[in-house]
Amino acid sequence: xxxxxxxxxxxxxxxxxxxxxxxxxxxxxxxxxxxxxxxxxxxxxxxxxxxxxxxxxxxxxxxxxxxxxxxxxxxxxxxxxxxxxxxxxxxxxxxxxxxxxxxxxxxxxxxxxxxxxxxxxxxxxxxxxxxxxxxxxxxxxxxxxxxxxxxxxxxxxxxxxxxxxxxxxxxxxxxxxxxxxxxxxxxxxxxxxxxxxxxxxxxxxxxxxxxxxxxxxxxxxxxxxxxxxxxxxxxxxxxxxxxxxxxxxxxxxxxxxxxxxxxxxxxxxxxxxxxxxxxxxxxxxxxxxxxxxxxxxxxxxxxxxxxxxxxxxxxxxxxxxxxxxxxxxxxxxxxx
Length: 336
Known about the structure:
By secondary structure, this protein is α/β, with parallel strands linked by helices. The chain is built from 12 helices and 15 strands. The chain folds into 2 domains: 5-119, 3-Layer(aba) Sandwich (Rossmann fold), CATH 3.40.50.720; 128-283 and 315-333, Dihydrodipicolinate Reductase, domain 2, CATH 3.30.360.10. The protein is globular.
């Protein structure tokens, strides 16, 4: 077993830079060996900042390097397919951020390439590594709330990202880009989803209408086991970044999430106030690091990945069905 794995980071956007920092400084067992980005100056700047050995603009150069043990894919989602299939053919272990792709056919092609090559592949759904979500799963497993019956999840951005990012051809749209985390959690806690019914609207940002996406949406879920659920998505949380999940059981309820970042209250006449969570880095940084650590340890100890292509495709199918439902104003079945 190698004491440190040489990891190549593909994609150094805002999230890629955070991952570079984690791999270089906060993931024991990993060494940030190389970075690739189509912007040469950015790749070189990240390489220099974190003392990596190599930087290049073509990910295939790093895949051809025998010193690279694994790659971490942080490119825009629309290029995941190319990078992952190239990595599979090169025999490199892969960690890929969610979602797998923007198109289910591309996701299936990625799964086929991974299966054919036999390479290790792990998908990034960081909420499964958040301490609160992990604790909730353990409580459910030990029967603390009896039999789970209802799943409720809410995800709110403080404000919308750029219009260019939000375009469905770039992000996949609200249900895939944002809701896929909630749909993955729904499966994790309750099993397969049998049908969905969604409704969405452009209610806060009228400038989003021309790009063909919604800023707020609600999806009702019916699970294959008969349980029900609801996912609420919003691009205009305004007060802060809000991620909350509630699991209702026959003997109790679990609530996950919080809105106060630091444990301080300001108490004045007629008001008690506290700060809020500014964004997903602040809320889930420990989970991002934990999932990378898990990826490295799985490779070092020969353990199977906890989140696979199959999980990514299943969540993506729910998101695609939710999108179709909102467009067609009808229930969409996922089974049969």
